[in-house]
Amino acid sequence: MDEEGVREWFCREVLPLEGLLLRFIRRNWPVADDAVDIAHDVYERVIGAARSGIPHNPRQYLLTVARNQLINRAKRARIVSFDLVADLETVSIDVDLFETERRLHARDALRRVQAGIDKLSPRIREIVLLRKIEGLDVRETSERLGIGRDAVNHQLAMGMKALADHMLGGAGKIVRRRYAGRRSNGDEA
Amino acid sequence: MSRARAARDAAAEWLIARDQDGWSADDQAALDAWLDQSDMNKAAFWRLEHSWKEADRIGALRPATPPVRQESGGSTRKWWPIALPLAASIALALGLGVPGVLPVGSPRSAPAPAVAVTKVGGHRLIGLADGSKVELNTDTRLRTLVDRGLRSVWLDQGEAFFEVAHRDGQPFVVHAGPREVTVLGTKFSVRREGGKVTVSVLEGRVRVDDVEPGGSARSTIITAGDIALSEGTATLVTTGSKERVGDVLSWRQGMLSFDQEQLSRIAAEFNRYNNKKIVIEDPEAANIRIGGTFPAFKPGAFARLLRDAYGLEIEETPDAVKITR
Questions:
Q1: Which chain A residues are closer than 8 Å to B221 by Cβ?
Q2: Can you tell me the ipTM of this complex?
Q3: Where are the transmembrane segments (chain B) (predicted)?
Q4: pTM of the full structure
């Protein structure tokens, strides 16, 4: 698998599962703040492994890697009890529950972008839209808004990162609450 | 800061820097080196690049009537109106979309647009006064006007490929019915079938605006490898395949290229170029998917290929090739 192929596979098959991955980590790991770091450790491994072969079932594979990662972490971290490690070893990687997830993602892609942009703070939203709708670069944006380029750079970077979190479905509390609601009343989506 | 967060921050900086004018080969080499440092860097960069690119879809998202309301908790939508002045000016410039109306602001004695036409099967290359080139596909009619600061083309029907000479401060605008394509320096094609407009970009960047009177402000920027399909109030952007754009543009070589498309669609495509029409009488045959590159002006040869390869029966008359089962 060449590098371009790995990148393409990662974006197409793995990234849409980010929401699922983060929920899996949060359910099975006591420290919520670690979730982003653990997810990136999983990505790193998955990318490395993809060079020698692409797994048939990315969902199953991703969660398996995540579970192993959690077990390794639990064994390394002394503050975590042995109970957790034992629990992790019996965590079932039941993917059927999430079978519809990715299709939903594709269908809702447009709505997610919109929702993601809605959630940005007004200033950052404005800067993102100047870029995306009017095609202004950093210099032009800084002239239009009368603020320094460093400020534009900084806010654009924040906007990019926040949008990625929102769109990939891993944006902390809001997304988790919504997800819990969806599960409890069947298939709202 | 954790490794993952550091990688995310760095990825955002790279992505912004790459987007600016003046990104050099050296800069690219530095980025490549950073990516090669670890798969963590790659994961962070690919992830951000992917979702940032996905966010280009916002142009297609503007609600039909932009809600104008104060921010009062709940969902905040006050960002939509940002693009409104843009749309308003476009609607004005287009004379509310009536084809052929000269833009407001040009002098009354403005020269009339030059008309260029091709018949079914025709193919024609024209040069404009500013050095830009326009290649007309089959059954196409367009009008061009290059005058002082203004460069405008009206695509009344059909399809054309544009190679636009870069001129600072002189936008090049293609009016295609309900859509307006503003060139930000590039090679691209526009195809119009009534209200349906397809824009495919081979190089550079263009902006597609919805200029339907009374409609909303929709604006989408697409870059090389992207195809924007517009119909009614919807705009769909498919991203990132130079090959597909290459397929769409194969008519420039007198060939038609398909990637596993339905025979019914392929027949419709052939019929754009030929007076001898392909008619599919068997509904099952219409759904067969076929890929490949074929000479655009030989529908008979294509049909015989179908007979030999798929066992379909064909019946050839002077003005049609019928495909029965």
A1: 132-133, 135
A2: 0.76
A3: 79-102
A4: 0.45
